[in-house]
Design brief:
CATH class of one domain: Alpha Beta
CATH superfamily of one domain: P-loop containing nucleotide triphosphate hydrolases
Helix content: 55-70%
CATH topology of one domain: Rossmann fold
Number of helices: 20
Oligomer: single chain
Number of strands: 15
Radius of gyration: 49 Å
Structural class: alpha/beta
Length: about 550
């Protein structure tokens, strides 16, 4: 409930503190006194925009007392604002043409005030009939009318829809994954076939490169190795002695004098070892030279083989060993992909989930149609008591695209008189009638509505006498379940209020200002007398006022 509303510099209101009561609060005052500014202030706190001409320099603050589990508290805290023992502070300022919004002491977007306000207040006026124009809100109101048992159907429908969405998403992902996996499998198969066809061996490229270089320099290598071999082993054609023979001859010469000289024996041993090593090198050179030959086509084969291996290196690894390692991993991945996902099982689950979703939606639709008939009858009966005796309200449940809340759109239709074609109430009713229709619905839905405060503007427009008394009585009935604030010109309505606030207009030279005062019992008699006769001092009007106050 709203516990306090502070208004500064808004239109004709310089400074005012409005403290509605917990039940039915009536807001009255002469025409032009500034009652509209109180509603304007409230609309600003609910995120609405106002004319800069009346809002410049304004500062509005509102304090709400709400249960600690009210979702509005979470919205404020999530925005960084503070709440204290279920108390929410909202504020709005207007300076230099800019409106700023605050929640719990933290500056927030105006849209957040609107979200918070939807959980705190419902305003019904000639220009603000949000709940009559919002299809989802109309459907939600019908669902609330059904009570806890019906809410179980709503919850079941949402859960079935969520379960279907989950398995449907998994199926779609599996199908897309299968397509991607098939493409991946084709790539892996092709790559493995390419590698298997070339059959690279560990270290093969380096060995082939060495052979390629030898064949490319075959003539020079042959000449050099032949000369080196002749220098070491000698040349039979020229009878030239080689280095190996000379070293052996030197070793033989030294051997004859080593018997008694240890140092010479050591040198002899070293010389003999050198002779043997040089002989081995000579023989290896001879074998290497004998193995050199230019096999026809060998160099071309080497070039092609290295080119093919190079393609593998560019695709699968920088070396032969890396290519072979990649192939091993690819073979394991291919084997895993070939096992695939169980699309048949997922498809079966999706079919079952879709059936459960459709069954839940059908059950919810049937329940809504039964509720729609009951709600329409009760609301129409209320309208007959609210100066709309010939009007009837109907609630239609129409097919809609299936979603979490079922497959229904809900429309509230009004037939202004017997035989009239029912039309959406936002179009078929006048501003005052809209407020009365909303009042009728709120009375019917009072036990199930989560909003704690209802504000009605001109709910009694165009009525009087017994009809106005009926409106007051029903507002009083609604106030047993929620806070009700009504801007009214009708004394019969104001008399039912538990709290009576009057907007007072004050004239000071050329400046008109307004204030808001809470009236005691005697002051209420005077104000209701003014509303009855236009003269607050009329004795007869005051007696009538006391009679009206006694009715409630």
């Amino acid at each position: 409930m709203i516990s306090e509303l502070r208004i500064e510099n808004l239109g004709v209101i310089t400074s005012a503190c409005v403290r509605p009561g917990p039940g039915f609060t009536a807001l009255t005052g002469e025409t032009g006194a500034g009652k509209t500014m109180v509603l304007t202030a409230l609309e600003m706190l609910l995120g609405g925009r106002v004319d800069a001409g009346i809002a410049e320099g304004a500062s509005i603050e509102g304090v709400w007392e709400v249960p600690t589990d009210n979702p509005a508290i979470d919205l404020v805290q999530d925005a960084g604002g503070a709440t204290d023992d279920g108390e929410i502070l909202l504020a709005r300022t207007a300076n230099n043409g800019r409106l700023r919004a605050f929640a719990g002491g933290r500056m927030v977007p105006a849209s957040l005030l609107a979200d918070i306000g939807q959980r705190l207040v419902t305003v019904h006026g000639q220009s603000t009939q949000q709940r009559l124009r919002n299809p989802s809100a109309q459907r939600a109101a019908l669902d609330r009318f059904g009570g806890p048992k019906h809410q179980e159907l709503v919850t079941a429908c949402r859960e079935a829809y969520a379960a279907w969405r989950e398995v449907a998403a998994a199926l779609e992902s599996a199908r897309q994954g299968l397509q991607q996996n098939q493409q991946r499998m084709l790539f892996l198969q092709s790559a493995l076939e390419e590698i298997e066809k070339l059959d690279p061996q560990p270290g093969e490229s380096m060995a082939l490169q060495t052979e390629q270089r030898r064949l490319g320099n075959l003539a020079d290598i042959s000449t050099a190795t032949a000369a080196a071999r002749s220098a070491i082993l000698g040349d039979e054609d020229t009878s030239a002695t080689g280095a190996a023979d000379m070293l052996h001859a030197a070793a033989r010469e030294l051997h004859s004098v080593t018997d008694d000289d240890e140092e010479l024996a050591t040198l002899h041993g070293r010389l003999l070892a050198a002779a043997e090593e040089v002989s081995d090198v000579g023989r290896d050179l001879a074998a290497f030279a004998d193995g050199l030959h230019d096999e026809p086509g060998r160099l071309e084969w080497l070039n092609q083989r290295l080119h093919d291996l190079g393609l593998l290196h560019s695709r699968y690894g920088a070396t032969d060993d890396e290519v072979l390692g990649w192939a091993q991993q690819a073979a394991a991945e291919l084997s895993e992909l070939e096992q695939g996902s169980d699309l048949d099982a997922l498809t079966a689950r999706e079919v079952m989930a879709r059936k459960a979703r459709d069954d839940a939606a059908r059950s919810l639709t049937a329940a809504r149609r039964r509720l729609a008939h009951s709600l329409a009858e009760l609301a129409s009966e209320e309208l007959r008591q609210l100066a709309m005796p010939n009007a009837s309200l109907s609630v239609e449940v129409r097919p809609a695209e299936l979603g979490p809340d079922g497959a229904d759109d809900v429309a509230y239709l009004l037939a202004a008189h017997p035989g009239a074609t029912p039309a959406p109430i936002a179009k078929a009713a006048s501003g005052g009638e809209l407020s009365r229709i909303m009042l009728a619905l709120e009375v019917v839905l009072a036990d199930t509505d989560a909003v704690g405060t209802f504000v009605f503007d001109e709910v009694d427009a165009g009525v009087g006498g017994a009809a106005a008394t009926a409106i007051g009585r029903r507002l009083h009935q609604l106030a047993q379940h929620a806070q009700v604030i009504v801007v009214t010109h009708m004394p019969q309505v104001a008399a039912f209020a538990g709290t009576h606030l009057r907007v007072l207009k004050q004239q000071d030279q050329n400046v008109t200002t307004s204030d808001v005062r809470s009236l005691d019992d005697d002051e209420r008699v005077v104000e209701i007398a003014r509303m009855l006769a236009g003269h607050e001092d009329s004795r007869h009007a005051q007696e009538h006022a006391r009679e009206l106050l006694a009715i409630r």
